[in-house]
Design brief:
alpha+beta; two-stranded antiparallel ribbon; 11 strands; repeat; zinc-finger; nucleus; NOA36; Zinc finger protein 330 homolog
Length: about 300
């Protein structure tokens, strides 16, 4: 029979599980809640930006820096793991700073834990925008992630990208390997897979977990749960020579078939109207002359 677990052993196992959950929760933490990606307003130019060691616009140093790992602005630990000891004194400002992160361009406090772990676990290590391909050092805004394809986005392109992210590269929603309906869609590769081709041979899948994409290993989703649309073709009015068209040209670049408005002007319309009036007057005069001749003939007959 196995030995009965003591209270100390049960407590140690619970503590081990709790520490594992804390570490996994830190990795699953949303990107906007990390201290290195917090919002900061410059004291000199009053511009909002990401948490930085120096202002992106005016290069000014902030009076109250924030640690990129723990998020504190004041070190109050008297007997902690601080590299620079300050017994009985609270460290603020640059006295709390220990380094600058090479990835997120933010201050790191002088705590030994922050200095040794932040560079390895910085969430902005590969934070290049998928649209403009700019890194953290190339733009002043915060960094976000697309809720569909889980790619990095800068503050300028986040809304436009997410509004047009749910589309497929193919012209149908069929599996790229066969002609059957694609039940699973990868929002990163923009392709669909059927139930047979989404799984790879020799790969162990977890139960009740999303199936990873066979191309990029990103979690796939069922197509029926998404508002996926296929690739669109933009059609428009073009000229035959490939040059820029103007509003003077008619439909499809042909001015002769645009309702006839380009071939006539106001002067021509006035001339036509005047000529029509003259013809009407001539016809009325001829009718009056014919009526007068008929009346004279009838009077002559009565006299005779």
């Amino acid at each position: 029979m196995p030995k009965k677990k003591t209270g100390q052993r049960k407590k140690a196992e619970k503590q081990r599980v709790r520490q594992k959950d804390i570490r996994s929760a830190h990795n699953k933490k949303p990107l906007g809640e990390h201290s290195c990606n917090a919002a900061m307003e410059c004291e000199k130019c009053n511009r909002k930006q990401k948490n930085r060691a120096f202002c992106y616009f005016c290069s000014a140093v902030q009076r109250i820096p924030m640690c990129a790992q723990c998020g504190k602005t004041k070190c109050m630990s008297k007997t902690g793991d601080c590299v620079v000891k300050h017994p009985g004194v609270y460290a603020t400002g640059l006295g709390m700073v220990g380094a600058i992160c090479d990835y997120c361009e933010a201050w790191v406090c002088h705590a030994r834990k922050c200095l040794t772990t932040h560079a390895c676990t910085c969430p902005l290590q590969d934070a290049n925008c998928i649209e403009c391909e700019r890194g953290v050092w190339d733009h002043g805004g915060r960094v976000f992630k697309c809720s569909f394809c889980d790619s990095f986005l800068c503050e300028d392109d986040q809304f436009e990208h997410q509004a047009s992210c749910q589309f497929l590269e193919s012209e149908t929603m069929k599996c790229q390997s066969c002609n059957r309906h694609g039940q699973y869609s990868c929002l990163r590769c923009k392709v669909c897979f059927c139930e047979d081709h989404v799984k790879r041979k020799g790969f162990k899948y977890d139960r009740n977990q999303p199936i990873p994409c066979p191309k990029c290993n990103y979690d796939t989703h069922q197509t029926k749960d998404l508002s996926m649309s296929i690739r669109k073709h933009d059609y428009g009015r073009h000229t035959g020579d490939g040059e820029n068209y103007s509003d003077e040209d008619g439909a499809c670049g042909y001015s002769g078939y645009s309702g006839g408005y380009n071939n006539y002007n106001d002067e021509d319309d006035d001339d036509d109207y005047d000529s029509n009036e003259e013809e009407d007057d001539d016809e009325e005069e001829e009718e009056e002359e014919e009526d007068g001749e008929e009346n004279q003939k009838s009077e002559n007959k009565q006299k005779t």
